[in-house]
Design a protein that fits this description.
Order of helices and strands: EEEEEEEEEE
Number of helices: 0
Helix content: under 10%
Structural class: mainly beta
Strand content: over 45%
Distance between the termini: 19 Å
Largest sheet: 8 strands, antiparallel
Shape: globular
Number of domains: 1
Amino acid sequence: MWRQGDIYIERAKAVPDGAKPLPHCVLAEGEMTGHSHRVAEPGSAKLYAHGANLYLDVTAARCSVVHDEHGTIPLARGRYRVWRQREYSPEAIRVVRD
């Protein structure tokens, strides 16, 4: 498992059936800073949405997940589940904003 700010990444066995392909590889936009968590090398991976989760299929030998304020995460070929950290408040469980 890898963590980059409020993003978590773990290996997955497969991209779930019915997952929708996305036209980009931005894992999360930084609402506070404007920086995004993204795949640095175009064409090295495909991103899919399935419910509240994202799935990253790294099709090249490797790719890099980058963010301007966090260290780079190198990922080898394979499939990964990506999700945002959540926090509890008495009002609701909400997604952490980076």
